[in-house]
Design a protein that fits this description.
heterodimer; A: about 950 residues; mainly beta; Immunoglobulin-like; Ferric Hydroxamate Uptake Protein, Chain A, domain 1; 22-stranded antiparallel β-barrel; 5-stranded mixed sheet; 56 strands; B: about 500 residues; Serine Threonine Protein Phosphatase 5, Tetratricopeptide repeat; 3 domains; two-stranded antiparallel ribbon; two-stranded antiparallel sheet; 16 helices; 8 strands; about 5% strand
Chain lengths: ~950, ~500
C-alpha cells in the first residue's frame, strides 16, 4: 500500500528551504521542495527510507513510518559552509570561484600566537609572501601578493583601505586574499597589488551566551649575539690604525696595561641594550544569538616589550558587532571598534642615522664605560671610535619616542530584499584616527652646549566610504545560474598633521622655546561605479566578468578617469560524467583569468601642482630673530602635471585538484602581470634643484608559479594530521625603461655614492648596485680591473669602464634584494586531546646590503674604528687576509657588504592540550617562535632589513627578530 | 559629487597663488638664504664639507686614512665625478640657492601686478638677484661652463639644457648684479641681508676674477678697482685696528669689517633652527679637544705664514694642559696645527684643553664673513698694480695696513717691515694669510694660475698629489655623474 507524505523543510532558524531533494532510497522516485520549503512525496511504503539532500546541508536518511505529515529540519553542513569564500562586494562558494583566491580562517592560526593580522597569513598561502622585517614590538610585517609590486590593500568589513594594524587578530573570522586580476579588478585601482578582505567575527543565531577568554605570556631573547672585539684588542687596533696612517697613537702603553689588568674593563654594549623581554596578551569575547539578532563583543589587551631596552608597544582593542533581521526581508549589520596603540621607541632600529641603537650597540667603543665618573654623565665621543653614532645606552634611555594612536572605525549596512532574486544594500563606513606622537631628546652626553628638545606631532586621519549596491541572483533551472552586482562608491579621506619642536637648555627646569608650527593637510577623493556578472552552466562551466570606472583626485583633471575590465573562466571537469564517479579524482577545476587594473596608490596628494614648501628651515638675519622661510618645493614632491594612471594587465592560469576524497589537494597557478606606465620617483637633476618627481616610467613584468599542496590523513581514531606546503617562485623583468636604466632607492644612504638600486631593461627588479670589490692589493703586479696609484693593502674595486679612476660609472649589479623562491611548511598533528603545530619557512636567492658590517670593520664616514673580530682578516694583520688594510677605503656601496641572506627558519612549534572537562572548554598550550635559523648572513637576522619593493634588501641595523617562548591558556563556556 | 575629485590645498599655497604680499616675498627670500647654510653636516657653507672643493690649495689638508676620503681626494687634486659629498656642496648648493632665487624673482612681477609698491618690491627682489649672481659666480669658477637656469619650475626644456659658455655666464652674473645694485638699499636694517655695498663688493670680486684665468679680460681691473674704491670710500665700513676682534663672537653684529656675513644661530638661541656652523668649531678642532679634525693646516703653509698677532690667533699650534705643560702640534694625533680663527665662543686656547674636551661641539653659531672691507683694500691694491688705474701710494698703504695689523703693530704708523713697493704676488700672498678659511685661496690660485707654484714647497709628509697642478684641467671640478646621466646634453670637463 502506497501512501503520500506532505511536509515542510526548514533550517535551524525555522526558515523554509527550497530546492531540497527528497528521494526514496533505492528507487528513482523523488521530489523537490518548493519555494516555501513544502513538498509532497507519493508512492511511499512503510519501511522505505527517504534521503533528504541539498547542497550545503547534511544529507539525512529518514525511515518512513506511515505518517502523512512531517516537518524536517536540515542542518547546514559545516564543512561545506567553510567553503563559502568572501570575495569583493559579496560571497561565493569556493567551488564556484573563477579567480585565484586564498583563504585563511581563524582556526588555521589557532596554534600560532600571532600579534597581528598579517602574521596570520605568513607561510599559509601560495602567492602571499609575508616578511617580518623588524623585531620591534608592534612592528607590522610586510605583505606582498604575487611578486614584489607594492602593498596590497585591506578591506575590513567592507571598508576599503582600513587600518589593519588596529585590528586584533583574535577578532578575525576569516581572511580572503584576492590574488589575480580577475578577482581584484572589482576593486579597480585599489586592487593593483592584491586585495586582502578581512571579515571579523559575529554571533550565531539562536545560540546561548558564549564566553571565550584567552591569555598568553611570552618571553623573548636575542637570538644570536655578534662576536665583537674585547676592549683591549679594540684599543690596540685603534692605535695600529693611527700608526699606519702616520699619526700618533691614541692610547699610551700605560693606559693599555691598566686596561689589561682591570677586571671587567670596558662595556659589552650588546648586553647593555638587549634584554629578556616579557609580553602579555589577553582577550575576552562574549557572543549571543537570538531568533533574529546576533551580537558579539570583544576586548583585547596586549603589552609587548621589545628585546631592546625601553621599547614597548601596548594595544587595547574593543569591537562590537550586531546583526539583525529587522523584517523578513530587511537585514541590518553594524560593526564598531575602538583601538588604542601606544608605543615607546617602536621605530628603533633600521634608521639611516646616528640614532640607530642596534648599529651603535655593535660599533660603539667597547673600552668606554656607560657613564663617565668625572662628568657624571653618559660617555660621549672621544676623538676616536664612532662619531656617526652615539652612546647606545644614551640612545636607549634619553631619546624617547612616544606614539599614541586611537582608531575608531564603524560601519553600518542595510540590506533590503526587493524580490527573492534582487536585493539592495546601502553601506556606510567611517574610520577616524587620532595621532599624537612626541619625541623627547635629551642633550647629548659630554656636550655642554647641546640642548634638549621636544618634538610633538598631532594629526588626524579620517576616511568616509559610502556604497549603494544591487545584487541579483537567479537560478533559471538547475542548468543556468546567473548573478550580477552593481555598485556605486564614494570615498573621501583627509590626513592632517601639525608639528613643532621645543628646545630646552640643559637645565631641564628652564622654559622651552617654540619653533614654528607646521601644518600639513592631504586630501584624497575617489568616485567609482562597478559591475560584475557571473554565470554558471550545469555547475561545470563558470564565467565571470567585471568592469569598474574610477576617478581619482590624485591625478590631473584631464587624466582623472579610467575604466578597468576583467574576465574569467573556470571549467569543473570533476562534474563531467567521465570524472564524476572517479574514486581517485574528487575535484578538478581549470581556471583562466585576465584583468586590467589601474593604480594611483603610490601617489601622494599634490603631486600634479607645484606647491610651496613650508618646511624649509628658517634663517636669522639679525640677533636671534628667526625669519620664516617658504619657497618652492625642493624635495620629494616636485610637481608633474602630466601624471597618468599606472595600469597592470594580469593573466592567470590555474587548476585545483583534489584526490582521494580531497585527502590530497593541489592548487597551482601561473601568473603573468605586466605593469605599464609605472609610477617611479625620477630624480631631478641637481642643477634644477634636485629632489624627485613622480612620473609614469617604464614597464615591468612579474611572472611566477605558486603551488599549494595539502595532505590530510586520519586513522579514523584518535590521530589525524594536516600538512600544507606552499611554494612561490617569482621572476620580475624590466621590459622597458627610458635610456635603458633607472636608478632607484634612497640617495642619502650613509656612505653611499648614489642610489642603492638599479632597474635595467631586460633584468630583474631589485638589483643592488655598487662597486665590485675585487680584493686586497697584495703585490705590485696589477690585477685585472685595478686602477693606478694604489698602495699595497688598499682595496681594489673593479674599474669597469677602464678609465683609470673609480667613479659611479664603474658600479655594477652586485646582487638582488628580492628572493627567487619562498616556501612555508605547516603541519598540524592531533592525537586525542593533544595538538601540535610545526611551521617552517624558507627564503632563497636573496642578497642584502649589510650596512652595520661596514661600521664594524671601521669603514664608516667620519672617524670609526673596527669593533668586529673579523678585522683580523685585514691586510694590516694578515698579508693573505681578505680585507684591506685598516686605513684603506672601505666603500660602503660595494659587494664587500652584500651578503646572501637566504635562510630556512623553524618559525613555530606549539603543543596544545585540551583538558577533558565537561563543564567548559579549556586548552593550555606552550611553544616557541623563531626557534632556529639556518643562514650564512653575518648580521643579526637575514629577514630583518628594510627597503622598498623597488629597492629591497638594505639592513641599516634593523631590530632583530627574537626567539620567543609562549605559554597560554584558552577558556570557553 | 565631482568636487570630491578636486585637490584643494587648504593651508598650503601653489606657486601660482603664493605671492599675495611682500611678506610672502620675504619668506621666499629667506628660503634662498637658508640654502647657503642648510645641512651643517654636508653642504652648508658653515660646514667642513663645503671646503672639500678647495682642498687642492696649499692651505689645508686632511687625514690620509680612508674615512676622510672626500677631503683627501680634494687635497690630492683627485676629485672624481661621483663624490656626492663634493658635488653636493660644489654643485647642488649654489643651484639650490638659484632655484629659490628664481622663485623669489618670479614674485617680483606677481606682486607689482597685484599693485604692491614697485620700489619696495624691487628692493626686496634685488636680494634674490644678488644671491643668483653669487651662485653662478661660484659655479662658473668651480665648473667652468654651466647650465644657466632662470625659472623655477621643472620642465622638459630645463631637463635638457646644455652648458652655457663661461663668458655668457659672466654676462648673466653682471646683468643680475646690475639689477641688484640699482635696487638694493645702501643700508639694510638687518645685518645678514645683502645691501647695495655687498653687491658692489661682489662686483669688484667678479671683475677681478674676469681679469684673470680663464677669460683674462684685463680691462676688468679698472672696473674691479672702481667698485672696491666705492665701497672703501662710501660704504661706511672701517678697517679694524686689531685682527682678533674681527672674529669675536660678541662683536659679530657690531664689527665694522663685515660687508656680508653668513648668519648662524644655534638651537639654544634659535630653537628649531639648527643653524650651526661646524666649520667654526667641531670640524676644525683636533681629536684631543673632541673635534672631528676634518681639516687642518698644511705644514709648509704654517711655516711660511708671517709671525705676529694674526698667526697666533689664526692657528692652534699647541695645547695647554692642566699641569702647566704644553703639547706641541707635532704631538697631536694628526701631527698638524689646526685653524683656530673661528673658535670664538667655543674654545679658549689659553685654558687647559682637558677642561674643554668636547665643549661646544657642533652647536657654534659664530657668523662667517663672506666679504670684509679688508678684501676691498686688497682688491684695490691688486687691480692697481695690474694696471687698473687708481693711486699707487694708496694701494701700497692699503697693503701695508693689512700687513701691520697681521704683525700686531699700529696700522696707521709706518713699520720697519713695510713694503716700499709691491707686486701682484705680494697681494695674493697677503690675501692668503689674511683670508685663510674664508674660501678665497683656491680661487686666487687658479685665477692667477699659480696653483703649481703654491704647491711646490708642499711638505713631503702630506698626502701625495695625484692630479697635476700644472694642468689647468685640474682647476675645474668634474660635473656630477648623476646630472650627466639625467641630461645627455651635458658634457664632462676634460682631465
Amino acid at each position: 500500500q502506497e501512501s503520500t507524505l506532505k511536509g515542510v523543510i526548514t533550517n535551524v532558524n525555522d526558515e523554509p528551504v527550497p530546492y531540497v531533494n527528497l528521494i526514496i532510497k533505492g528507487t528513482p522516485k523523488g521530489t523537490v521542495s518548493d519555494f516555501g520549503g513544502e513538498f509532497q512525496l507519493g508512492g511511499l511504503s512503510i519501511s522505505d527510507v527517504i534521503v533528504v539532500s541539498s547542497i550545503g546541508y547534511v544529507t539525512q536518511e529518514i525511515p518512513y513510518k506511515g505518517q502523512t505529515n512531517i516537518s524536517i529540519q536540515i542542518n547546514e553542513d559545516a564543512e561545506q559552509l567553510e567553503e563559502i569564500v568572501v570575495i569583493g562586494y559579496g560571497t561565493q562558494k569556493k567551488s564556484d570561484l573563477t579567480g585565484s583566491t586564498g583563504v585563511v580562517t581563524s582556526e588555521d592560526s589557532d596554534l600560532q600566537p600571532v600579534p597581528n593580522v598579517q602574521g596570520m597569513l605568513q607561510g599559509k598561502m601560495a602567492g602571499v609572501v609575508v616578511s617580518q622585517n623588524s623585531g620591534a614590538p608592534g612592528a607590522a610585517p610586510k605583505v606582498n601578493v604575487r611578486g614584489f609590486t607594492g602593498n596590497p590593500i585591506y578591506v575590513i568589513d567592507g571598508l576599503i583601505d582600513g587600518d589593519i594594524n588596529a585590528v586584533n587578530p583574535n577578532d578575525i573570522e576569516n581572511i580572503s586574499v584576492l590574488k589575480d586580476a580577475s578577482a581584484t579588478a572589482i576593486y579597480g585601482s585599489r586592487g593593483a597589488n592584491g586585495v586582502i578582505i578581512v571579515t571579523t567575527k559575529g554571533g550565531k543565531k539562536n545560540s546561548p551566551l558564549k564566553v571565550n577568554a584567552e591569555y598568553y605570556h611570552t618571553v623573548s631573547q636575542l637570538n644570536n649575539k655578534l662576536e665583537l672585539l674585547d676592549p683591549v684588542s679594540y684599543m690596540k687596533i685603534v692605535n695600529k690604525k693611527k700608526l699606519e696612517a702616520g699619526a700618533n697613537e691614541i692610547f699610551s702603553r700605560l693606559e693599555i696595561r691598566e686596561a689589561e689588568s682591570t677586571p671587567g674593563f670596558g662595556t659589552d654594549w650588546q648586553d647593555e641594550v638587549f634584554r629578556t623581554a616579557h609580553s602579555d596578551n589577553a582577550n575576552i569575547s562574549l557572543s549571543k544569538g537570538w531568533d533574529k539578532t546576533t551580537m558579539r563583543f570583544s576586548l583585547g589587551a596586549r603589552n609587548d616589550e621589545g628585546i631592546l631596552r625601553n621599547t614597548n608597544y601596548k594595544r587595547y582593542t574593543s569591537r562590537l558587532s550586531v546583526s539583525s533581521d529587522l523584517t523578513s526581508s530587511t537585514k541590518l549589520n553594524f560593526n564598531g571598534s575602538f583601538t588604542q596603540e601606544k608605543g615607546m621607541n617602536t621605530a628603533q632600529g633600521g634608521q639611516n642615522g646616528s640614532d640607530n641603537v642596534v648599529a651603535a650597540a655593535t660599533a660603539w667603543s667597547p673600552n668606554l664605560k656607560v657613564y663617565d665618573e668625572t662628568t657624571n654623565d653618559y660617555t660621549g665621543f672621544q676623538g676616536y671610535g664612532a662619531t656617526v653614532l652615539r652612546n647606545p645606552v644614551y640612545l636607549s634611555e634619553e631619546i624617547l619616542r612616544n606614539t599614541n594612536q586611537k582608531t575608531y572605525a564603524t560601519n553600518l549596512s542595510l540590506t533590503q530584499k526587493i524580490i527573492p532574486e534582487l536585493s539592495f544594500k546601502v553601506f556606510g563606513a567611517m574610520q577616524y584616527r587620532d595621532i599624537n606622537n612626541d619625541t623627547f631628546t635629551r642633550y647629548e652626553p659630554a656636550t655642554p652646549n647641546s640642548v634638549s628638545s621636544f618634538y610633538e606631532l598631532t594629526g588626524s586621519n579620517v576616511k568616509y566610504q559610502g556604497n549603494a549596491q544591487l545584487d541579483f541572483n537567479k537560478e533559471f533551472s538547475s542548468d543556468h545560474k546567473l548573478n550580477a552586482t552593481a555598485v556605486f562608491e564614494v570615498i573621501s579621506r583627509k590626513n592632517k598633521s601639525e608639528f613643532f619642536t621645543t628646545s630646552y637648555d640643559q637645565g631641564e627646569d628652564q622654559e622651552g622655546t617654540l619653533s614654528e608650527v607646521i601644518n600639513v593637510m592631504e586630501p584624497e577623493g575617489m568616485l567609482s561605479a562597478l559591475g560584475r556578472v557571473g554565470y554558471s552552466y550545469k555547475d561545470k562551466i563558470l564565467l565571470t566578468g567585471s568592469v569598474r570606472l574610477d576617478g581619482s583626485s590624485r591625478l590631473p583633471e584631464d587624466n582623472q578617469w579610467d575604466d578597468f575590465y576583467s574576465a574569467a573562466f573556470a571549467y569543473k571537469l570533476s562534474n563531467e560524467e567521465f570524472l564524476k564517479y572517479s574514486e581517485v579524482v574528487s575535484m578538478l577545476k581549470l581556471r583562466v583569468g585576465y584583468g586590467e587594473i589601474g593604480n594611483v596608490n603610490s601617489l601622494n596628494a599634490f603631486q600634479v601642482q607645484d606647491l610651496t614648501n613650508p618646511r624649509i628651515g628658517p634663517y636669522v638675519f639679525q640677533g636671534t630673530e628667526l625669519a620664516y622661510a617658504e619657497g618652492i618645493e625642493n624635495g620629494a614632491n616636485r610637481a608633474n602635471p602630466e601624471l597618468r594612471w599606472e595600469v597592470s594587465r594580469q593573466t592567470n592560469f590555474g587548476f585545483d585538484l583534489g584526490l582521494l576524497d580531497d585527502k590530497i589537494q593541489l592548487n597551482a597557478d601561473y601568473y603573468n602581470k605586466i605593469t605599464d606606465d609605472s609610477h617611479f620617483n625620477s630624480v631631478v637633476p641637481g642643477y634644477l634643484g634636485g629632489g624627485t618627481v613622480k612620473s609614469n616610467t617604464g614597464k615591468l613584468q612579474n611572472q611566477g608559479v605558486e603551488l599549494q599542496l595539502t595532505y590530510k590523513w586520519t586513522t579514523g581514531g584518535k590521530f589525524s594530521m594536516r600538512n600544507t606546503l606552499s611554494f612561490n617562485y617569482n621572476q620580475s623583468e624590466v621590459l622597458a625603461i627610458p635610456q635603458d636604466t633607472v636608478y632607484v632607492g634612497n640617495i642619502n644612504e650613509r656612505g653611499f655614492e648614489r642610489q642603492s638600486h638599479i632597474l635595467i631593461q631586460g633584468q630583474e627588479v631589485g638589483q643592488l648596485y655598487g662597486y665590485r670589490y675585487v680584493g686586497v692589493k697584495k703585490s705590485n703586479t696589477p690585477v685585472e680591473g685595478e686602477i693606478p696609484n694604489l698602495e699595497v693593502g688598499d682595496a681594489i674595486y673593479y674599474d669597469a669602464n677602464g678609465d683609470g679612476t673609480i667613479s659611479i660609472e664603474d658600479m655594477e649589479v652586485i646582487g638582488n634584494g628580492h628572493p627567487d623562491m619562498t616556501w612555508g611548511f605547516n603541519s598540524y598533528l592531533d592525537y586525542g586531546n593533544w595538538s601540535l603545530n610545526i611551521f617552517i619557512q624558507g627564503v632563497h636567492g636573496v642578497d642584502v646590503f649589510n650596512l652595520p658590517q661596514h661600521g664594524l670593520l671601521g669603514g664608516g664616514s667620519g672617524v670609526l674604528d673596527a669593533t668586529s673580530t673579523e678585522i683580523y682578516n685585514s691586510y694590516s694583520f694578515d698579508r693573505n687576509g681578505s680585507l684591506p688594510s685598516l686605513n684603506a677605503r672601505y666603500r660602503a656601496q660595494s659587494s664587500l657588504f652584500v651578503e646572501d641572506a637566504s635562510f630556512i627558519r623553524i618559525k613555530n612549534i606549539t603543543l596544545a592540550y585540551q583538558v577533558p572537562w565537561d563543564k567548559a572548554q579549556l586548552r593550555v598550550y606552550g611553544g616557541a617562535q623563531n626557534i632556529y635559523t639556518f643562514t650564512n648572513y653575518k648580521g643579526y637576522d637575514p629577514e630583518s632589513n628594510s627597503g622598498s619593493n623597488l629597492a629591497p634588501g638594505i639592513d641599516r641595523g634593523s631590530f632583530p627578530l627574537p626567539i620567543t617562548y609562549t605559554f597560554g591558556l584558552n577558556f570557553g563556556i | 559629487c565631482e568636487s570630491i575629485l578636486k585637490e584643494t590645498p587648504e593651508d598650503r599655497s601653489t606657486i601660482n597663488n603664493f605671492f599675495q604680499s611682500t611678506e610672502n616675498l620675504d619668506h621666499s627670500l629667506t628660503a634662498a638664504y637658508r640654502q647657503l647654510v642648510d645641512n651643517a653636516w654636508n653642504r652648508s657653507l658653515g660646514g667642513a664639507r663645503s671646503r672639500t672643493v678647495f682642498m687642492g690649495a696649499d692651505d689645508f689638508t686632511s687625514q690620509p686614512g680612508g674615512n676622510k676620503a672626500d677631503f683627501k681626494a680634494g687635497d690630492q687634486l683627485n676629485i672624481g665625478s661621483s663624490d656626492i659629498n663634493i658635488s653636493g656642496t660644489g654643485w647642488n648648493l649654489p643651484y639650490d640657492v638659484i632655484l629659490q632665487s628664481n622663485f623669489a624673482i618670479q614674485g617680483i612681477e606677481d606682486l607689482i601686478a597685484r599693485g604692491e609698491d614697485e620700489t619696495t618690491v624691487k628692493a626686496m627682489g634685488a636680494e634674490a638677484y644678488f644671491l643668483r649672481a653669487w651662485s653662478y659666480f661660484r659655479l662658473v669658477r668651480l665648473y667652468g661652463d654651466v647650465p644657466v637656469v632662470l625659472d623655477p619650475s621643472y620642465s622638459q626644456e630645463n631637463a635638457n639644457l646644455a652648458r652655457t659658455p663661461v663668458k655668457e655666464v659672466y654676462q648673466q652674473i653682471l646683468s643680475d648684479l646690475e639689477f641688484a645694485i640699482e635696487h638694493l638699499p645702501k643700508q639694510q636694517v638687518e645685518r645678514g641681508r645683502v645691501s647695495y655695498w655687498a653687491a658692489k663688493a661682489l662686483k669688484a670680486d667678479v671683475h677681478l676674477t674676469m681679469a684673470g684665468w680663464p677669460l683674462k679680460e684685463t680691462e676688468n681691473y679698472a672696473l674691479a678697482l672702481k667698485a672696491a674704491e666705492d665701497v672703501i670710500n662710501n660704504g661706511g665700513f672701517s678697517f679694524e685696528e686689531d685682527f682678533a676682534p674681527i672674529f669675536d663672537y660678541n662683536r659679530q653684529d657690531s664689527n665694522t669689517e663685515y660687508i656680508w656675513q653668513l648668519k648662524f644661530c644655534n638651537v639654544i638661541n634659535c630653537p628649531g633652527a639648527g643653524l650651526i656652523t661646524t666649520f667654526a668649531s667641531q670640524t676644525t678642532k683636533p681629536g684631543e679637544l673632541g673635534g672631528f679634525q676634518d681639516i687642518y693646516v698644511e705644514i709648509a703653509y704654517y711655516n711660511k705664514f708671517p709671525e705676529g698677532n694674526r698667526k697666533d690667533f689664526t692657528f692652534l699650534s699647541e695645547l695647554k694642559t692642566k699641569d702647566g705643560t704644553t703639547i706641541p702640534w707635532e704631538e697631536f694625533t694628526w701631527k698638524h696645527p689646526f685653524l683656530s680663527k673661528f673658535y670664538s665662543g667655543t674654545v679658549n686656547k689659553d685654558l687647559p684643553y682637558e677642561d674643554q674636551v668636547g665643549t661646544t661641539a657642533p652647536s657654534s653659531d659664530l657668523d662667517l664673513p663672506m666679504y670684509r672691507i679688508t678684501e676691498m683694500m686688497l682688491i684695490y691694491a691688486e687691480a692697481q698694480v695690474n694696471g687698473g688705474g687708481g693711486e699707487a701710494t694708496k694701494a701700497l698703504e692699503y697693503l701695508n695696513q693689512v700687513r701691520r695689523r697681521g704683525k700686531g703693530v699700529p696700522t696707521n704708523q709706518t713699520d720697519a717691515d713695510d713694503l716700499m713697493a709691491f707686486t701682484a704676488q705680494d697681494v695674493i700672498d697677503e690675501r692668503g694669510w689674511e683670508f685663510i678659511g674664508e674660501q678665497k685661496r683656491w680661487f686666487d690660485l687658479i685665477r692667477t694660475e699659480t696653483l703649481e707654484n703654491a704647491l711646490s714647497d708642499r711638505d713631503p709628509s702630506e698626502n701625495p698629489l695625484i692630479g697635476d697642478p700644472s694642468n689647468k684641467n685640474f682647476y675645474l671640478l668634474p660635473l656630477p655623474d648623476i646630472d650627466l646621466e639625467l641630461n645627455p646634453n651635458l658634457t664632462q670637463n676634460p682631465r
